[in-house]
Design brief:
This protein has about 90 residues and is mostly helical. Helix content is about 45%, strand content about 5%. The protein is built from five helices and two strands, in the order E-H-H-H-H-H-E. The chain has helices at about 5-15, 20-25, 30-35, 45-55, 60, and strands at about 5, 65. It has a two-stranded antiparallel ribbon with strand order 1-2. The longest helix is centred in the middle third of the chain and has 11 residues, at about 45-55.
Length: about 90
C-alpha cells in the first residue's frame, strides 16, 4: 500500500510506549498495533485527530504517501532485430 504510517517515529520522538498512547487515545493496543504496522485498511478522522492531539503533531507527521514499485521490475529482453534477406 502506498500509504506509510510513521506512528513508531513519533512514539520514539515522544519517548512514549504503544500502551501509553493507546490509553491516552482511547483505543486498544491491538488496534493501535494494526495501524502502526501498516495493516489497517482505514483510520477514522476522530482517531487520527486524537493521535495528533496526544502526540502534538500534524496528520502528515503520521501518514505519508510513497509510490508503489511496479510488480514487474525485471529487465525486459530487447526486441529481436528483424531478419534481413540478402
Amino acid at each position: 500500500m502506498p500509504i506509510t504510517v510513521d506512528i513508531d517515529v513519533m512514539l520514539a520522538k515522544r519517548k512514549m510506549s504503544v500502551g501509553e498512547l493507546a490509553d491516552r487515545v482511547g483505543i486498544t493496543p491491538a488496534n493501535l498495533a494494526v495501524l502502526k504496522n501498516g495493516r489497517a485498511k482505514a483510520v477514522r478522522f476522530a482517531t487520527l485527530a486524537a493521535l495528533c492531539e496526544v502526540l502534538g503533531c500534524q496528520p502528515g507527521d503520521l501518514l505519508r504517501w510513497e509510490a508503489e514499485e511496479p510488480a514487474d521490475t525485471e529487465p525486459h529482453d530487447p526486441p529481436a532485430e528483424p531478419a534481413t534477406v540478402h
